[in-house]
Amino acid sequence: MNISIGIIDFLMLALVVQGLILAIVLAFSSGRIHSNRYIAAFIFVVAESTLLMELDYLGLVQKYPWLLTAVVPLNMALGPLVYLYARSLAFGAVTPRRKILIHFVPTVLYAKHQVIFILYVLGVLSVPLVSNLYVLPITQKILFGFNSLSLIPAFLSLVIYSLVTYNMVSGGINSEDLSAYRKADLKWIKMLVQIVFVLISIWFVSIVAGYLFPIPDLEPWFHYCLYIPAIVFVYWLGMMVYKRQRIMSRDEMQEYIKQPVKTHFKDDEASDYYDQLKKLMIADNLYMNPVLKVDMLAARLSIPEKGLSNLLNQYVGKNFNDFVNEFRVEEAKRKLIDPRYGNFTIAAIALECGFNSLATFQRVFKQITGVTPSQYQTNAKKSFVEK
């Protein structure tokens, strides 16, 4: 059998290879950010599914039947990976391994070739009763036949998990208990799930079209319409996640991955300490110190470092970086519209307000205000002119 590869198949295989490599790189570079491992697995599953589709339509599965046993379709894992990624990224939740594995048990539904191979090796298929059942046409059709309806379990799994994820994210965006980082992550996840819904819609159309028009020449195109945008999406997704991971500073990384701190203050004690903390920050402009750390601020309050972290998490609902950066952003907002700083660049203003770099300043400023520093400055000037 001669294998002919068209330009579309060649480009898709190239994207598949890049997607698999990107998934591996992202998984090994994620460090302690467990959420990135879920998205790496998601990229891997989409790339693997695209590869299996290509192997089928290029005739390689027919030429090398052992491929069916060597590769397990993982479509049922797509939905759980979307949910676990969102949960881990948005809330920093570390799910016990046993509970994680439960989500992936249904994946065995698509491991029929592997199950058949194991039964063959164990000699179960040679048992007369099993053998007679195995050779029935209806059994062979169920086990080895393929049509669009066979994708329905994976499709429904992705739909259900995506809806649950979207509902969880939408409910969390307005929560006052989350830090600015977490809220930014929720908006990021919400956008990703919306894109997944678009892909689900395309998938639904391809399933219906494949069922209504079972024409061999058209069947590959039904799949191309789904897999091309899907593989492009996960390639873009991998690059964006890797980029987001790389631009985080060391301090931000530590603040980002740490687990929630247990609370120890009563409400009246927390309120008193918080009032002292705000007065101290405003009176001495401590936030303008670019190397301000938790221990330095705790020493000024005469409480342990852990006590300050507890105070911020319990009473303020923010981590240390978010708390300090809000003061810095407010100071930056004043300086951006102050004529006395008209000759200052945005980078200079960032340094004046205690930020270590322009990139960090721009990212934090947009997370808190919703606009970039330059947009805020432009909008303020327009508002002043209109008045």
UniProtKB/TrEMBL annotation:
- Give yes or no: UniProt keyword Transcription regulation: yes
Residues in HTH araC/xylS-type domain copies: 276-379
For this protein, the parts annotated as crossing the membrane are 6-26, 38-60, 107-130, 142-164, 191-215, 221-242
Q: Which UniProt keywords apply?
A: DNA-binding, Membrane, Transcription, Transcription regulation, Transmembrane, Transmembrane helix
Q: Which Gene3D superfamilies match?
A: Homeodomain-like
Superkingdom per UniProt: Bacteria
Is this entry keyworded DNA-binding? Answer: yes
Q: Which InterPro entries match?
A: Homeodomain-like_sf, HTH_AraC, HTH_AraC-typ_CS, Tscrpt_reg_AraC-type_HTH
Coiled coil ranges: none
Q: What is this protein called?
A: Helix-turn-helix domain-containing protein
Originating species: Mucilaginibacter calamicampi
